[in-house]
């Protein structure tokens, strides 16, 4: 009988506990190079027997990969395995950058279409423009059947090396040649930062990578520091990342020696992190925006602000992830992110949701928020009275399931509103707007920001075209009752491609319910 992975899946699952012990030997800890138990030795021999003696050729790496995942599924919802194939992409995202030519692009027809270049990045410096079609890279014809992964590898490379690009430009008859010098290309974790009014700064962070704190400082330093009396920290949809980066940002708002967070490992060892002196916004009012997708390191910041009575948390209950992972190399280019501790907010509460009924129940219980009314009504939020805590200022807070905001803002229940936001964030609008701007690249590429902001660039005809565009994908929409809202999101998408995310969020946020709540509170 020919070997398949399904054939041995029951055996693999049965061995999960054994391999759990074997993991310790595999995590590259010098003190664990020798087998510590007969179980570890048993599994190693089992793999060797299959590799050396089984009648058919067997990919034992696949067995180990599936078994590792099975083991991690038995532990907790957030311990995970990163395969060798996925590790590079995951590492780049958390490192906050990679070496490349600095463009975002689409595959359109038989060419590579430049959506935009990264400001001051390699392609920007070389002179590439939005709408350019890259038809060749180092002699490789990109119009041939070449997959996106191969294109990405072709454009990436060693720092300070060059790639020769042949480009078709919208107003040129001949192909243009560009020698682009590869360099570090940042993956932004701070989407936007600007002044909402004369005294209120807004900053949106999408994750916590290695560069987040330096991004945060750089962006905020470009704002008029002397005028900032209030800061709105937008952590909606931020699923977390490095704890160190989050605590550094929390430190900017807390006074010296205020507790930010503490962690506890399996041995009961505590690691407490306190604020230092000289935070840039220690005296500013703070408003933290959270929602049901705010998790992990983001919840550390929200918890620190709330438990120290330092500011106001606005929005909806956060995800509820209070586990700390550490990435551990497995020696072959893959890695495991293993939960090594729990974190606690300054009052001592864990906001980790229960996973005692298994991972499937854990994630399905989260999804129930969309049907049980919690996102529409504060009264529908279930709290565990046994996990009640009190802040120094006398405020009651709860552990055991996310950060509950001080001021609740329901989710926008209008289907069109939710769908428009999804289309903006998911990319449906992006490709459509790209094709619309392709009709007159010279005009759009020469727009000044002030002209863009004041101009009525989204026409009724364009909205009609967007409805037809969605129809091509079997999505039927009539935006006649929400034309103004559709215009906002389409113009924000255009801003992303012509300018940057900062301008896009300035446009979208003008009608944001949570920001309206902030301004309402400030005016009282």
TrEMBL record:
Annotated Tail specific protease domain residues: 173-356
Domain PDZ span(s) in chain numbering: 97-171
Protein keywords: Hydrolase, Membrane, Protease, Serine protease, Transmembrane, Transmembrane helix
Database matches in InterPro entries: ClpP/crotonase-like_dom_sf (IPR029045), PDZ (IPR001478), PDZ_sf (IPR036034), Peptidase_S41A (IPR004447), Tail-specific_protease (IPR005151)
Pfam family, one: Peptidase_S41
Transmembrane domains' residue ranges: 7-24
GO BP: proteolysis; signal transduction
Ligase listed as a keyword: no
GO cellular component: outer membrane-bounded periplasmic space
Coiled coil: none
Family statement: Belongs to the peptidase S41A family.
NCBIfam families, sorted: prc
Protein name: Carboxyl-terminal processing protease
UniProt organism field: Psychroflexus halocasei
């Amino acid at each position: 009988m020919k070997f398949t992975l399904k054939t041995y899946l029951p055996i693999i699952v049965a061995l999960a506990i054994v391999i759990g012990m074997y993991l310790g030997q595999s995590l590259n800890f010098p003190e664990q190079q020798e087998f510590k138990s007969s179980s570890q030795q048993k599994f190693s021999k089992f793999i060797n027997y299959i590799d050396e003696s089984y009648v058919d050729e067997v990919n034992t790496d696949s067995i180990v990969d599936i078994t590792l995942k099975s083991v991690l599924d038995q532990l907790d919802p957030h311990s995970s395995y990163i395969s060798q194939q996925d590790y590079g992409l995951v590492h780049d995202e958390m490192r906050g950058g990679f070496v490349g030519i600095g463009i975002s692009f689409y595959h359109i027809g038989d060419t590579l279409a430049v959506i935009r270049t990264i400001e001051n990045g390699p392609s920007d410096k070389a002179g590439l423009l939005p709408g350019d079609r890259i038809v060749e890279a180092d002699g490789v014809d990109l119009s041939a059947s070449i997959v996106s992964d191969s294109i990405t590898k072709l454009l990436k490379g060693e720092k300070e090396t060059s790639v020769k690009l042949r480009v078709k430009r919208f107003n040129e008859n001949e192909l243009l040649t560009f020698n682009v010098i590869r360099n570090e290309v940042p993956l932004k974790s701070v989407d936007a930062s600007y002044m909402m009014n004369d005294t209120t700064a807004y900053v949106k962070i999408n994750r916590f990578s290695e560069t987040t704190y330096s991004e945060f400082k750089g962006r905020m330093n470009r704002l008029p520091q002397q005028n900032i009396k209030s800061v709105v920290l937008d952590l909606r949809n931020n699923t977390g990342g490095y704890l160190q980066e989050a605590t550094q940002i929390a430190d900017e708002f807390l006074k010296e020696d205020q507790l930010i967070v503490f962690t506890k490992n399996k041995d009961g060892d505590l690691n407490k992190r306190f604020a230092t002196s000289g935070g840039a916004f220690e005296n500013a009012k703070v408003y933290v925006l959270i929602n049901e997708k705010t998790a992990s390191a983001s919840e550390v910041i929200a918890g620190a602000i709330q438990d120290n009575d330092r500011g106001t948390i606005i929005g909806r209950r956060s995800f509820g992830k209070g586990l700390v992972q550490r990435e551990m190399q497995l020696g072959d280019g893959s890695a495991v992110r293993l939960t090594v501790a729990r974190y606690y907010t300054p009052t001592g509460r864990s906001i980790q949701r229960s996973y005692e009924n298994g991972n499937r129940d854990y994630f399905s219980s989260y999804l129930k928020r969309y049907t049980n009314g919690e996102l529409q009504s504060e009264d529908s939020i279930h709290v565990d009275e046994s996990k009640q805590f009190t802040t120094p200022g006398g405020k009651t807070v709860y552990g055991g399931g996310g950060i509950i905001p001080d001021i609740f803002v329901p989710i926008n229940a209008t289907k069109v509103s939710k769908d428009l936001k999804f289309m903006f964030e998911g990319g449906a609008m992006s490709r459509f707007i790209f094709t619309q701007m392709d009709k007159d690249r010279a005009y759009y590429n020469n727009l000044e920001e002030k002209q863009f902001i004041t101009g009525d660039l989204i026409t009724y005809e364009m909205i009609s075209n967007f409805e037809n565009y969605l129809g091509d994908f079997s999505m039927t929409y009539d935006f006649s009752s929400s034309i103004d809202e559709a215009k906002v999101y389409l113009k924000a998408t255009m801003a992303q491609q012509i300018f940057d995310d900062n301008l896009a969020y300035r446009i979208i946020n003008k009608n944001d319910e949570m920001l309206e709540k902030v301004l309402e509170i400030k005016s009282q």
